[in-house]
């Protein structure tokens, strides 16, 4: 079930989370045994350090520019671009500038 989001209302996912200086901010929309969906904002220069996920992780940049390092390969994603980071492959996320993304992990 969805949480932290209005139902039967047209909205922009990027508006569900605000930028905060020097921080990564997140709002979880779904969390269960099968899927996790979270909206993130990154201030410029902020990051989530290298880690691996227990499922395939799909990110879509909603605003700005983010750098994704997956298995040692670097991807620079802009608004509207999507990348799938495979299960158990180490990855990291960095704010090249302020940016927002949607993360969907399927288990």
- Which bin fits the share of residues in helices? under 10%
CATH superfamily: Jelly Rolls
How much of the residues is beta strand, in percent?
A: over 45%
Order of helices and strands: EEEEEEEEE
CATH topology: Jelly Rolls
Which stretches of 5+ consecutive residues score pLDDT under 50? none
Please characterize this protein's 3D structure:
With 107 residues, the chain is mostly beta strands. The protein has one domain (13-106): Jelly Rolls (Sandwich), CATH 2.60.120.10. Helix content is 0%, strand content 54%. The protein contains no helices and nine strands. It has strands spanning 24-31, 35-42, 47-51, 56-63, 65-70, 73-78, 82-85, 91-95, 99-106. The radius of gyration is 13 Å and the shape is globular.
Quick synopsis:
This protein has 107 residues and is mostly beta strands. It has no helices and 9 strands. Strand 5 and strand 6 form a beta hairpin.
What's the arrangement of secondary structure elements?
Elements: E1 24-31, E2 35-42, E3 47-51, E4 56-63, E5 65-70, E6 73-78, E7 82-85, E8 91-95, E9 99-106
Antiparallel strand pairs: 1-2, 2-9, 3-8, 4-7, 4-9, 5-6, 5-8
Which features does this protein show?
107 residues, mainly beta, four-stranded antiparallel sheet, Jelly Rolls, 9 strands
């Amino acid at each position: 079930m969805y949480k932290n989001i209005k139902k039967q209302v047209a909205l922009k996912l990027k508006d569900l989370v605000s930028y905060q200086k020097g921080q990564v901010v997140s709002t979880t929309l779904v969390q269960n045994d099968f899927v996790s969906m979270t909206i993130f904002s990154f201030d410029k220069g902020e990051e989530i350090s290298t880690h691996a996920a227990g499922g395939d992780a799909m990110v879509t940049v909603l605003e700005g520019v983010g750098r994704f390092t997956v298995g040692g390969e670097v991807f620079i994603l802009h608004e509207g671009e999507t990348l799938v980071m495979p299960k158990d492959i180490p990855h990291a996320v960095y704010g090249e500038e302020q940016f927002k993304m949607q993360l969907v992990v399927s288990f």
